[in-house]
Amino acid sequence: MHSALLLTITQYDPELAFARSKDAVILFEYLQTQHPRKYDASLSTALTNHSNSLCGLGEYSQALQTIKQSVHIQRDLLFHHSRPRVTSSLCCALHNLAQCLLDAGDSYSTQLALGTITEAIELIEVLTRDNPAFLHVLGTCLLTYSHCHVRHGDHAEGVRAAERAIRIRRTCTMANSAQRDALLAEAYSHLSSCYSIPANGDTTKALSAIQGAVSLQRGLLREDRSSTKILDALAYYLYRSAMLLARIGGTDEAIRAIEESVAHREQLALGDPSAYNADLSQSLHDLGVLLHNNRQHAGAKSAMQKALRIRGKLAMMDGQRYGRSLRNSEEALTVIQSACLRL
């Protein structure tokens, strides 16, 4: 799921988020008919949250139409009330519109997303000249701008935008330092992706960036060990770190990183299997591959068998989505078992 400027319950329960956000839209649409213009801002926010909840359910077409309504309202508000907060709200809506366009996946939608997020950046940069409080919005918009350029194949511009977002997030003054560090870790992760994507990418720089994200996320976890969101992000950054370490030949370090990722994802899956089992199976599968390549065949067999059991259950629930990953683990286990027999 893409990052949103407006935090909603979508991150935790998509079905509940959808129901509540839909109720909010219905409420403010009714109030708007009774008191024209008075509830425009509230309706726009409700529409943005509803769009986010639709994305959480994979309903991208409906999400796109919903966020377009929000942008239309915000443009009208800015026309009648040219104030910084109104401009900022329009930027947030434009950001979410750009994200929805990126979710469409085709080149035309990506081009539209680039134009949309460029408009948001131009608007928010004017605000930041007089009020640094809006810098965090600029940082978020820059990451989406970077994503658009990477999708178009312009990785150099994607890297420049991501690096600027990191510089901004480092200097942002936020009441919640944990939120700032989480946003900075996200930016490092995106920069790592920018360096990783091209065929001739810079793996060393990609690794350095993702390890920066790991370091920040470890600090957040020390402050709040009960947060599943923090633990999930750390597990993801560790997994990415392991893949990059393996690419440059740091097999032992890669194994340690992915073993920690597995441990965190196992903990998460105990609490919510439906939310975390797919990621856990991926970490277990790749742990098996790394151990096999390092001639640790017994450990590789154990990890791959665990991955296979989880993927078998997932494929029973959704064969179209998980069938291929199940076959990959079956084939990998066959290779590992053959290696065990040769010992």
UniProtKB/TrEMBL annotation:
Domain of life, per lineage: Eukaryota
Protein name (database record): Uncharacterized protein
Organism: Vararia minispora EC-137
